[in-house]
Fold V/A-type H+-transporting ATPase subunit F.
Amino acid sequence: MKSYLISDNQETLIGMRLAGIEGVIAHTKEEILEEFKKLLEHRDIGIVIITEKILSMAEEEIMKVKLERDYPLITVIPNRDPQKREDYISKYIKESIGIKI
């Protein structure tokens, strides 16, 4: 089973490729939905990784698929903005286990 990335920036794509994960860069909602639709047709793609910015651009469509389908696993990774990273981790912990740090 493979993982695949839909990213909004080149640096994230390069980092994932170094880890052996293929992907694509998308800048518009139309590009995102086109790539996302292609991925849903491939049974060998088990995990779809998207950046927060990609999710924000097509959240309604992505969340609909995430809630209605068991396969593939859709996971969101934070953007590369270091100022938001700390907030992201705290928010994630609070949402996951209900503890505010």
